[in-house]
Amino acid sequence: MRRKRYTPIAMPHIFRIRDAVGGLALAVFFLYDAAYARPMH
Q1: How far apart are the C-alpha atoms of 5 and 26, rounded to whole Å?
Q2: Cα 3 to Cα 9: distance, rounded to the nearest angstrom
Q3: Structure confidence at residue 1 as a pLDDT band (50, 70, 90)
Q4: pTM for the full predicted model
Q5: d(CA 12, CA 4)
Q6: What is the rounded distance in angstroms from the CA atom of residue 35 to the CA atom of residue 20?
Q7: Separation of alpha carbons 18 and 23, rounded Å
Q8: CA distance 37 to 39
Q9: What superkingdom does the record give (predicted)?
Q10: Contact present, 14 and 5 (Cβ < 8 Å)
């Protein structure tokens, strides 16, 4: 993917942190769902 020239320098960094936190929260949610929401064998 090519970078957009009009995008500020700090924006990709902020979006990268936000996406990492969002992905981590999503992973924790799915692990929680798999571990506790469904009956464990």
Answers
A1: 31
A2: 10
A3: low
A4: 0.47
A5: 10
A6: 22
A7: 8
A8: 7
A9: Bacteria
A10: no
Locate 32 and state its tokens.
């929680």
Q: Which residues of 7-36 are buried (b: 16+ CB within 10 A; e: fewer)?
A: eeeeeeeeeeeeeeeeeeeeeeeeeeeeee
Task: Identify the pLDDT of residue 7.
Answer: 58
**DSSP-assigned letters across all residues of 1-41:** -PPPTTS-SHHHHHHHHHHHHHHHHHHHHHHHIIIIISPP-
Q: Which residue shows structure tokens 């992905």?
A: 23
- Mind listing the pLDDT tens digit for each residue in 16-32? 888 889 889 999 988 88
Six-digit token string for 16: 């990268």
Q: Residue 6: its pLDDT value, please?
A: 61
